[in-house]
Each structure stands twice: as structure tokens, then as C-alpha cells.
Amino acid sequence: MHTGSCLCGAVRFEIAGDLAPIQLCHCKMCQRASGTVFASNMPVRAEDFRVVSGAESLKSYESNPGKERLFCGDCGSPIISRVAADPGTVRVRVGTVDEPVDAALAFHFHVASKASWAPITDDLPQYPAARPS
To answer: What is the span of the domain harbouring residue 96?
Structure first.
């Protein structure tokens, strides 16, 4: 079992099972939603993700048709995103997961729109657009 929370602690969650590899998204929407160079996401089966407190503090924003981003309405921390086309998966923002995070980095995607001021300097696979299936 893994736990996590938003910055202010109002929203707390649990993830059952092992953590999946971390995916680094460089799309402009993730840059704007996170306020940084990329979003660090971890796919989690929806049935393995559970909000244990603060569900009433969660707010959502549909950033494009069928994609919903959930965040703490008190402190603004992004918690998860989910897409209607894949209801069995949520994408947890890894920075909200309590340490230790025993998951490896997997790849960068949407690198065609990466920030010009932040070079990618690791040897992870890179995908110009969407993540691989």
C-alpha cells in the first residue's frame, strides 16, 4: 500500500499494489497544469486508487473533451487525471505520492512540445507525441 496527499494535506489517498513506471509528459497542457517543465505521471488501475479523506476538497477541470484533471480546491495541488476513453485507469501525479516511491522512470512523451529552456539529458526513450500503448 502506498499513500499520498496534496500540499495542504486536505486530500489523502491510497494506492494498492505495486507502483507502475513513471511517465514524463512534456505537452503544453501538462506544463501549464503543473507549472513546470513536465508532469510526472503514474498510471494506476482506478480500482487500486482510493481517496481516504478530503474528497469534498477535490475539484475537477475538463482540460479537453474527455480529459478531466482533479486537484485540491484548497491548495491547488494536482492529484490525478483521467480520460473517458480509459475509465479503468487514473494517472497519479507522482509528486503527491509519499516516499519512498519505488518506481522507475519509463519514458518521456510529447517531446515535440517540450520546453525550449529544459534539455532532456537522460537516456530514457523519447516519443514526439502520445505515449506508446
So the answer is: 2-124
